[in-house]
Amino acid sequence: xxxxxxxxxxxxxxxxxxxxxxxxxxxxxxxxxxxxxxxxxxxxxxxxxxxxxxxxxxxxxxxxxxxxxxxxxxxxxxxxxxxxxxxxxxxxxxxxxxxxxxxxxxxxxxxxxxxxxxxxxxxxxx
Amino acid sequence: xxxxxxxxxxxxxxxxxxxxxxxxxxxxxxxxxxxxxxxxxxxxxxxxxxxxxxxxxxxxxxxxxxxxxxxxxxxxxxxxxxxxxxxxxxxxxxxxxxxxxxxxxxxxxxxxxxxxxxxxxxxxxxxxxxxxxxxxxxxxxxxxxxxxxxxxxxxxxxxxxxxxxxxxxxxxxxxxxxxxxxxxxxxxxxxxxxxxxxxxxxxxxxxxxxxxxxxxxxxxxxxxxxxxxxxxxxxxxxxxxxxxxxxxxxxxxxxxxxxxxxxxxxxxxxxxxxxxxxxxxxxxxxxxxxxxxxxxxxxxxxxxxxxxxxxxxxxxxxxxxxxxxxxxxxxxxxxxxxxxxxxxx
Lengths: 126, 345
Description:
Number of domains of chain B: 3
Structural class of chain B: alpha+beta
Number of domains of chain A: 2
Distance between the termini of chain A: 62 Å
Order of helices and strands of chain A: HEEEEEHEEE
Shape of chain A: elongated
Largest sheet of chain A: 4 strands, antiparallel
CATH class of the largest domain in chain A: Mainly Beta
CATH topology of the largest domain in chain B: T-fold
Number of strands of chain B: 19
Order of helices and strands of chain B: HEEHHEHHHEEHEEEEEEEEEEHHEEEE
Oligomer: heterodimer
CATH topology of the largest domain in chain A: mini-chromosome maintenance (MCM) complex, domain 2
Structural class of chain A: alpha+beta
Number of helices of chain A: 2
Helix content of chain A: 25-40%
Strand order of the largest sheet of chain B: 1-2-6-7-10-15-16-17-19
CATH superfamily of the largest domain in chain A: N-utilization substance G protein NusG, insert domain
């Protein structure tokens, strides 16, 4: 069917293409696991997106609304540091470190999260 | 001719490789309703339309079933308590009330939607938390009785017999809403999705690749999102009740939101969390509350008596128990290393 030369050519091109795909795929997935994007949102609208890797010095971000939340951003992590809401659940949640971590201030309808999902699970029942 | 053939082979090869990198990441939507966070994750062409339909339906159900804001169906029913009048209600509400009565009977009153007067006394779902005195609770407990919640299904009506009775659907409304959301997904031709109504999880089908949805079970003594273990489910629901969801600590005592109608106080049953795996989320919602109040032994017996329903129980001494259908299915992943998975039999 094919000549010997054709077969060698096909084999060579197949190997090159496969290698190219493999490399781009590993780069892509490697990138997403290192990439740490935090999202601050209120009433379901994103108000700020931060690349936590690129944070060089700590910064506080205020979310105004029915209550006042203060979000602390540091390299690789983010949290609610202060809030005048009644239940303080947002502050008690502590630091968010990895993909899928989320903290919510229900009274102020504010959410901070690290984009992506946790390694082994799709969603948590609580 | 040969070149074309070579080219075709290579082209098909490339196509095969790109096809798997081009996957649908799913549509995500987050909203605030029913006093909690609603997250939806949906695959398929109608994802956005379905998510919007779901959220507007949930908001309508919230209005109909809440007792924390004026208006709606349940407030109409409560307002006429003891007046001897039947109150015409939406058939949907009648369905939820019937389910509530059914689970009240099955759990021997551990789940009782006429708990309203006690809930109000504790101010649990508002910012007005207080600790009622025993005589007050004793008085209010007399109003908590499912036999005085009457249903006339034919006329889509209900009646509360005693003056001052209050139906509170807080323990079942999110569960029912989850089932309704699923119906909306299916109607829109969606075959892969999940919705979380404040931690009540309802899944449609499996993940797009055919694998099960991996649902994490919240660690009841760790921050939100930290989980003890994983239950893989397809097309089912997981609902969790725990003493960590809404609580106030006063002088070292944890006052949580799940009331035991026998004492009128937050249930102390030795459980700190119960998760129910079931086909319908309304069942899971009612049963997670019921088993939390009943405790490990009675709770487990109840779940084992119900076909197609399973449970994960976490006790205050940090032990985890599962019912027969979850043996070999539930996986412990506890990073805190504080919990022990008790595998019997």
